[in-house]
């Protein structure tokens, strides 16, 4: 290797092209992990200052200086003034470089008993914890908008369809809260993913632990995790798996959003005109002056494919990975961050759009034809004593005799649990409240931990 084409890094002299190739997108993507990396380092240093080594690794004063400098880095990062250079390769070595420049030997000791492998796993878990909290809240917010839409229009009839063909009388209340309930199930999946993710991998080091009396429980407590991951090898192997679980959860959210988008596209066609999308959420055409296009909905449908592709990409990266750290995992970072950001942006835009979407009752009523009441008629005969199959054939043979009944009365007659007149709005309110409280409680724990870990060196973003 000629001297000209190499760079000196903290961990060796590396060929320029190799450095560019191996650091990849980390120098950019790791910006999102700076704060997590500093918080993790503060917890690690605090633990190191307390473990029974003689002499102690860090005195109380050393620790204060380390934490203050980590606080400095966080403040710089928030102003976008903390660089991650190619020579750093990633956020971990950038932080170590800064600490060493400021604090000399204290900086050189910070990596005692850890590896970048458990460090990045930790950073991603801290990052995910934040992202999942926000995503759960945003999912609950969209569910709340849909529940409100359903409540407001609980008595507004809508033709219920199967195979896309007219089926039975339904309502806007039933339609809107069906999507709300789907989102609340998605929120449950996200909460489960949150719980799996809420464990500290630090102390796994390269993947196999270290021959030092480190205190993994203490680090987990300091960062407000529910526990440490137990097995150190699994702590490392869970990187990638965790991202895959979270993206699979996100793709469930996207599955709901895509179907909601699809229904809205269909039912805003002029041939239906059941709903009116807010003009500011639609786009025009460069040639057709009259156009009002539902581009937002089309993009949500398309992004559902992308998020699932992100989930599959991570899964596929991991499925062939042998035990222990492999650099392949680095490739999961970009798709992971993309999948999270895309899902969250879809949740927010759908909530804003639906909050202003209006319902056209006249058009909804006009959609009813006599045949939509065929099943209700057969069941009327059943209630009067006729066996169902006889009633079915009777109505089928006399379809021309069916009259256009009042759809409002038809939906009021379905009073059983979960039907048009049996919707339990308090159940939805409870589930929305539970999801929001989950986030509030978790965020309170996190904030409190960060505050006591960092002291005055830290202000909440
Ligand atoms: N940037 C790396 C990643 O995302 C950090 C870990 C590097 N570890 C290593 N042994 N090269 O995976």
Describe this structure in words.
By secondary structure, this protein is mostly helical. The chain has helices spanning 16-23, 26-29, 34-50, 60-78, 91-103, 105-109, 116-152, 172-197, 216-222, 232-267, 295-319, 332-355, 361-366, 374-383, 388-397, 407-412, 425-454; strands spanning 6-9, 12-15, 157-162, 165-171, 199-200, 227-228, 275-276, 358-359. The strands form four sheets. It has a two-stranded antiparallel ribbon with strand order 1-2. A hairpin with a 2-residue loop joins strand 1 and strand 2 (12-15). Arginine binds at residues 26, 90, 116-117, 120, 325, 327, 329-330, 333.
Q: Can you summarize the main beta sheet?
A: 2 strands, antiparallel
Nearest-angstrom radius of gyration? 28 Å
User: What fraction of residues sit in β-strands?
Assistant: 5-15%
Q: Give the proportion of residues in helices.
A: 55-70%
Number of distinct beta strands: 8
- Spatial arrangement of strands, main beta sheet: 1-2
Number of helices: 17
**Mean of residue pLDDT values:** 97
Morphology call: elongated
Low-confidence stretches: none
Note the run of SSEs as H and E.
Answer: EEHHHHHHHEEHEHEHEHHEHHHHH
List ligands, each type once.
Answer: arginine
**Structural class, judged by helices and strands?**
mainly alpha
How far is it from the N-terminal to the C-terminal residue, by CA?
45 Å
């Amino acid at each position: 290797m000629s001297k000209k084409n190499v760079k000196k890094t903290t961990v060796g002299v590396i060929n320029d092209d190799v450095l560019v190739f191996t650091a990849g997108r980390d120098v950019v993507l790791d910006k999102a992990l700076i704060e997590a990396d500093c918080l993790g380092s503060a917890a690690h240093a605090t633990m190191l200052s307390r473990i029974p080594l003689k002499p102690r690794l860090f005195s109380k004063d050393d620790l204060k200086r380390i934490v203050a400098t980590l606080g400095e880095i966080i403040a710089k990062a928030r102003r976008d003034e903390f660089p991650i250079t190619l020579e750093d390769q990633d956020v971990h070595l950038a932080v170590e470089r800064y600490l060493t420049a400021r604090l000399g030997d204290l900086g050189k000791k910070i990596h005692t008993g850890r590896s970048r492998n458990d460090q990045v796993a930790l950073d991603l878990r801290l990052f995910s914890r934040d992202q999942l909290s926000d995503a759960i809240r945003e999912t609950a917010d969209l569910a709340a908008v849909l529940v409100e839409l359903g409540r407001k229009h609980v008595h507004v009839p809508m033709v219920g369809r199967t195979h896309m063909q007219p089926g039975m009388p339904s309502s806007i209340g039933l339609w809107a809260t069906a999507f709300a309930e789907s989102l609340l199930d998605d929120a449950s999946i996200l909460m489960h993913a949150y719980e799996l993710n809420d464990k500290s991998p630090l102390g796994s080091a390269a993947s196999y632990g270290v021959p030092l009396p480190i205190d993994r429980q203490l680090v987990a407590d300091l960062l407000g995790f529910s526990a440490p991951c137990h097995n150190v090898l699994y702590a490392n192997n869970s990187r990638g798996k965790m991202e895959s679980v979270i993206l699979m959860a996100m793709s469930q959210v996207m599955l709901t959003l895509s179907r909601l988008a699809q229904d809205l596209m269909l039912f805003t066609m002029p041939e239906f005109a059941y709903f009116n999308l807010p003009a500011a959420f639609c786009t025009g055409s460069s040639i057709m002056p009259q156009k009002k296009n539902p581009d937002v909905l089309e993009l949500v449908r398309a992004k559902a494919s992308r998020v699932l592709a992100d989930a599959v990409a991570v899964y596929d990266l991991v499925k062939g990975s042998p035990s222990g750290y492999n650099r392949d995992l680095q490739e999961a970072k970009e798709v992971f961050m993309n999948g999270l950001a895309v899902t969250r942006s879809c949740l927010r835009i759908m909530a804003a759009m639906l909050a202003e979407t209006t319902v056209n009752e006249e058009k909804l009523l006009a959609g009813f034809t006599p045949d939509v009441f065929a099943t209700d008629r057969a069941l009327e005969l059943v209630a009067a004593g006729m066996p169902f199959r006889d009633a079915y054939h009777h109505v089928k043979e006399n379809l021309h005799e069916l009259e256009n009944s009042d759809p409002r009365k038809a939906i009021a007659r379905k009073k059983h649990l979960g039907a048009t007149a049996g919707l339990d709005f308090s159940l939805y309110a409870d589930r929305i409240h539970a999801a929001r409280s989950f986030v509030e409680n978790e965020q309170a724990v996190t904030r409190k931990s960060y505050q006591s870990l960092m002291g005055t060196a830290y202000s909440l973003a």
